[in-house]
Amino acid sequence: MTEDPERDGARMSFKGRMAYGDYLGLGDLLTSQHPLSDAHDEMLFIIQHQTSELWMKLAIHELGAARAAIIAGDLQPAFKMLARVSRIMDQLTGAWDVLRTMTPSEYTQFRHILGESSGFQSHQYRMIEFVAGNRNLAMIRPHEHRPADAKALWDEALRPSLYDSVLGQLRAAGFDVPARDRLDQPHQPDPAARAAWLAVYRDPVRHWSLYDLAEKLVDFEDYFRRWRFNHVTTVERIIGFKRGSGGTSGVDYLRRMLDVVLFPDLWEVRTEL
Ligand code: HEM
């Protein structure tokens, strides 16, 4: 007999009630894909970017809350949120497998219609970098035509970063680590912080929370690097060494970005252990 879920108690009528699509705003979400060409693969391209932006939105939500928890000295919830961010980055990395199914022949059918738009102009991507502590103020310029996005990045650049909040925990534990004078710059290797991390990594049992916190950041950066690496490889596979639609040298630019380090102290300390 065919299943009738109503007999099992499922609600089948939603007149005047909130249903799944109402709660999730699916009316807007599923009508926000507007291909500008007839190319079959443009839908893939749009949805891949949109879903990435949704996951980035969640990552920003989690990173901001993790930072607030760390500042409050409430580390357990921060561990949970940072672990989630790493899973999100992993999810984003896995998503390249879908995009990789698009060949250069397919992409060239609609690449011209993108004009100069590029993921380079993703303000949420910059926000993730800025929250983590990789603050390159030049990256705000492409957002000046949208004052709210530019302002959000400026505001973020002047707040203590996630890593600054972690340095605050080192200080709270008695380590002599100075606060940064310029919050709006990327984190540079700092000998005092590295000495503190060395003590933490040499005696994890004594400094377990700090040790755990450091490893959560390294996890996050590790997954972030995998995303970058998969991006540049996918880009090379699809456009070779053509210039990017955003105007950069393309693969050469993206390869340089592979060398950007979010938390230099935490990587450098490993050499000394
Ligand atoms: C056919 C697929 C793709 C190609 C060919 C491509 C190509 C490029 C290129 C060449 C750049 C360098 C900037 C430029 O000159 O345009 C770039 C940057 C970027 N792309 Fe993609 N991309 C693709 C898909 C994606 C997807 C799905 C995302 C997810 C949101 C994404 C996010 C980014 C971000 C965030 C940057 C800035 C990276 C940085 O400045 O470090 N891209 N992309």
UniProtKB/TrEMBL annotation:
Cofactor, free-text remark: Binds 1 heme group per subunit.
Domain of life, source organism: Bacteria
Substrates-to-products reaction catalysed: L-tryptophan + O2 = N-formyl-L-kynurenine
Positions bound to heme: H231
Keyword field contains Oxidoreductase: yes
Residue positions binding substrate: F45, I46, I47, Q48, H49, Y107, R111
Matching InterPro entries: Trp/Indoleamine_2_3_dOase-like, Trp_2_3_dOase
Function: Heme-dependent dioxygenase that catalyzes the oxidative cleavage of the L-tryptophan (L-Trp) pyrrole ring and converts L-tryptophan to N-formyl-L-kynurenine. Catalyzes the oxidative cleavage of the indole moiety.
Protein known as: Tryptophan 2,3-dioxygenase
UniProt organism field: Paracoccus albicereus
Gene symbol of the encoding locus: kynA
